C-alpha cells in the first residue's frame, strides 16, 4: 500500500511518496511496459497498490483523510489508447525512437481555410461565451449538412454542439440510461463505449463479431440478446477499431429488430463517415424507415477535417433527448469553444463530404491501407479483414501467442505482444483486448507512408524471432 505523507512545522515544506515492494514494470493506466524505457533520461513512472487513507502530519497532530472514490468511478477502466499514446510520447521525448501507431489522430494539418477561420475569430474578438447548444450559425450549418449528405432532417433545436464527439456520447448515455439498463455494444468496440456506459450506471452487454464476417454484427445474435432492460445500442460505421462499414442492407435488418423493442434507442457514431473507401458507402441509421425518432446521431470534426485539438462534436436527434443532453452540458462544460465553432462552420463550407481537402486525405489513407494489408498479408498465420473505412487495421496475430521471445519471455496475449513489439521493434500499438478482442492488435495508419514502411520493417524483423505457436 502506498502511503503519502506531508511533513511540516508551520508550513508544508516537503512531500514524499513511499512505496512498499515497488513494481518491476512501470504502469500507465492498465497497460504495463518495461521500466528501463522510463528510466531513460530520468523518466520514472511507478505505481503501488491503491492508498485508502492519507496521513497528514501538521505540527504534532495527525488526521486521517478518507480518500475512497465513488463506486461508479472505481468501475471504470482508464483508456488504453490514451495511456499508450501518452507512454509513447514520453518515450519519444526522452529520445527513444518510437514509431507511434496507437493514437487515432490524422497526421495532416487542419486545412488552411478552417485554420484561418479560427484565426479570424480571434482577431475579430469572437472569443466570448456562445449559447450552450452552440451558435445558430453552426447548428444551421450542421442541419444543412445532415440533410444534404445523410438524408436526415433536423432543426437547430435538435442539434447540440459539444467539446468533441466523446462528450456527446457521454451526455447521451447519461440522459437516456437508468441504473440497471443495458447498453448493447458490438465487439470489437471503441474503448470508451463500455466505460461510458458504466459511468451512466448502465450495464454494457458485449456482442462478439468475427473477423471472417468483417467484424459485422449478426442480426440473429442481436435479436437473441435483447431484453426489456435493453435501452441503447451503439453502432459505429465506419468502425474504430476495425474499419468495417455496415452495408445498408444489414442496417435495414438491424432496424427491423430495433423496431420490435419500444425502449431500445440507437446511438449511431458516424465520426469516420467521410473516411471511406469506394465501393463502400455510408448510411446514416436515422435515415432508415422508422428510425429517426429512435436514433441519436453523433458526429464531429476531428477525424475527417484533421481537427482533433479543436475539440468539436455534435449530437442530433429528437428534441426531447437533445434537450436532456443540453441540460447536462449546461451544468458541466457549457458551450464549446467559440473559436472552434467558427472553424467548424468553415469546415462544413468546404463542400459535399469535405470537398477536395478531405478527398486528398482519404486518398492518402487508402494508399497506406493498401500497403499495410499487402505487407502483413505476407506473414504466415496472420488474419486480416480489409478495412473499408477509418484509418485502422485490426489484425489477428493470435498465431504468435504461446511463443517464447529471447530476453523477453512468453507471448501470452495481445498486451504482451504489444509490449514485445515496443521493446524489440520500438513500435507502439494498441492491444486488442482494449477493444474486446484479445486475438488482434490495432494499428493506426494515420502516419506517413514512409513512417509506416519503417514500422512494418521493424515489426517483421521482431516477429521473425518468434515461431507461430498455433498451427495454421
What can be said about this structure in brief?
This is Bifunctional aspartate aminotransferase and glutamate/aspartate-prephenate aminotransferase. One of its GO terms (molecular function) is aspartate-prephenate aminotransferase activity. The chain is α/β, with parallel strands linked by helices.
Task: Provide an overview of this structure.
This protein has 472 residues and is an alpha/beta fold. The N terminus is likely disordered. Helices cover 34% and strands 20% of the residues. Strands 8-14-13-12-11-9-10 form a seven-stranded mixed beta sheet, sandwiched between helices. The protein is globular, with a radius of gyration of 24 Å. Pathway: Amino-acid biosynthesis; L-phenylalanine biosynthesis; L-arogenate from prephenate (L-Asp route): step 1/1; Amino-acid biosynthesis; L-phenylalanine biosynthesis; L-arogenate from prephenate (L-Glu route): step 1/1. It comes from Acer negundo. Belongs to the class-I pyridoxal-phosphate-dependent aminotransferase family.
Strand content: 15-25%
Low-confidence sequence ranges: 1-30, 35-58
Task: Label the overall shape.
Answer: globular
Largest β-sheet summary:
7 strands, mixed
Number of strands: 21
The CA-CA distance between the termini, in Å, is: 45 Å
Secondary structure category: alpha/beta
Q: What value does the average pLDDT take?
A: 88
Helix fraction, binned, reads 25-40%
- Rg over alpha carbons: 24 Å
The largest beta-sheet arranges its strands as 8-14-13-12-11-9-10
What is the number of helical segments per DSSP (H or I, 4+ residues)? 14
GO molecular function: aspartate-prephenate aminotransferase activity; glutamate-prephenate aminotransferase activity; L-aspartate:2-oxoglutarate aminotransferase activity; pyridoxal phosphate binding
Cofactor: pyridoxal 5'-phosphate
Family: Belongs to the class-I pyridoxal-phosphate-dependent aminotransferase family.
Protein name: Bifunctional aspartate aminotransferase and glutamate/aspartate-prephenate aminotransferase
Amino acid at each position: 500500500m502506498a502511503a503519502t505523507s506531508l511533513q511540516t512545522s508551520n508550513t508544508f515544506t516537503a512531500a514524499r511518496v513511499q512505496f512498499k515492494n515497488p513494481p518491476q514494470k512501470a504502469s500507465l493506466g492498465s497497460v504495463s511496459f518495461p521500466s528501463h524505457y522510463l528510466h531513460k533520461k530520468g523518466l520514472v513512472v511507478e505505481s503501488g497498490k491503491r492508498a485508502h487513507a492519507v496521513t497528514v502530519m501538521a505540527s504534532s497532530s495527525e488526521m486521517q483523510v478518507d480518500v475512497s472514490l465513488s463506486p461508479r468511478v472505481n468501475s471504470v477502466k482508464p483508456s488504453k489508447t490514451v495511456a499508450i499514446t501518452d507512454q509513447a510520447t514520453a518515450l519519444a521525448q526522452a529520445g527513444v525512437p518510437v514509431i507511434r501507431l496507437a493514437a487515432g489522430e490524422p497526421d495532416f494539418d487542419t486545412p488552411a481555410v478552417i485554420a484561418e477561420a479560427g484565426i479570424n475569430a480571434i482577431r475579430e474578438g469572437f472569443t466570448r461565451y456562445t449559447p450552450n447548444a452552440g451558435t445558430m450559425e453552426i447548428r444551421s450549418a450542421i442541419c444543412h449538412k445532415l440533410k444534404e449528405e445523410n438524408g436526415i432532417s433536423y432543426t437547430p433545436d435538435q442539434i447540440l454542439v459539444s467539446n468533441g464527439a466523446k462528450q456527446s456520447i457521454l451526455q447521451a448515455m447519461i440522459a437516456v440510461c437508468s441504473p440497471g439498463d443495458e447498453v448493447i455494444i458490438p465487439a470489437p468496440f471503441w474503448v470508451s463505449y463500455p466505460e461510458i456506459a458504466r459511468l451512466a450506471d448502465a450495464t454494457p452487454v458485449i456482442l462478439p463479431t468475427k473477423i471472417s464476417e468483417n467484424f459485422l454484427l449478426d442480426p440473429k445474435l442481436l435479436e437473441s440478446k435483447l431484453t426489456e432492460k435493453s435501452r441503447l445500442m451503439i453502432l459505429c460505421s465506419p468502425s474504430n477499431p476495425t474499419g468495417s462499414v455496415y452495408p445498408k442492407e444489414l442496417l435495414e435488418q438491424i432496424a427491423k429488430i430495433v423496431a420490435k423493442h419500444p425502449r431500445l434507442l440507437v446511438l449511431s457514431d458516424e465520426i469516420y463517415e467521410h473516411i471511406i473507401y469506394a465501393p463502400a458507402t455510408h448510411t446514416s441509421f436515422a435515415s432508415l424507415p422508422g428510425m429517426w425518432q429512435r436514433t441519436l446521431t453523433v458526429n464531429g470534426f476531428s477525424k475527417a477535417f484533421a481537427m482533433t485539438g479543436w475539440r468539436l462534436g455534435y449530437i442530433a436527434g429528437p428534441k426531447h433527448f437533445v434537450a436532456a443532453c443540453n441540460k447536462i452540458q449546461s451544468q458541466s462544460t457549457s458551450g464549446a469553444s467559440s473559436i472552434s465553432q467558427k472553424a467548424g462552420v468553415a469546415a462544413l463550407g468546404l463542400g459535399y463530404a469535405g470537398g477536395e481537402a478531405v478527398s486528398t486525405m482519404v486518398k492518402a489513407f487508402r494508399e497506406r491501407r493498401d500497403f499495410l494489408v499487402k505487407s502483413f498479408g505476407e506473414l504466415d498465420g496472420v488474419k486480416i479483414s480489409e478495412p473499408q473505412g477509418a484509418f485502422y487495421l485490426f489484425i489477428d496475430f493470435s498465431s504468435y501467442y504461446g511463443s517464447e521471445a529471447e530476453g523477453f519471455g512468453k507471448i501470452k496475449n495481445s498486451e504482451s505482444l504489444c509490449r514485445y513489439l515496443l521493446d524489440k521493434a520500438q513500435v507502439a500499438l494498441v492491444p486488442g483486448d482494449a477493444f474486446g478482442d484479445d486475438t488482434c492488435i490495432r494499428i493506426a495508419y494515420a502516419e506517413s507512408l514512409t513512417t509506416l514502411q519503417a514500422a512494418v520493417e521493424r515489426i517483421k524483423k521482431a516477429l521473425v524471432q518468434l515461431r507461430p505457436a498455433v498451427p495454421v
